[in-house]
Amino acid sequence: MATYFVVQTFQQGNKGMLIPDQARQARDLNHCRTLAERMAKTSASVVAFSRDGDPGTGDWDDAVVVAKYGDVPAELLELDG
To answer: Is residue 33 part of a domain?
Structure first.
C-alpha cells in the first residue's frame, strides 16, 4: 500500500476557462499543503489531494482533498472522500 500526495494547479485561460498545469507530486502531507499554499500565489486555483492504493495491482482508494485555493473545478472537489 502506498500513499501519493499530489498538487494540481490551474491557470486562467481564454473566456475564464481553467487550464490544468502539470501535476506535482509531494513527499508527504505537510509538503503537499505547503506546496499548494506556495503555488496558490501564482496560480488561478490549486487543489492538493492524497490517494492510497497499490501501484502493483492498480487498486486505488478515492482521493481525499487536503487543500484548495481559488475556484477549483467542481468535478475535482467530488474527490472529497
So the answer is: yes
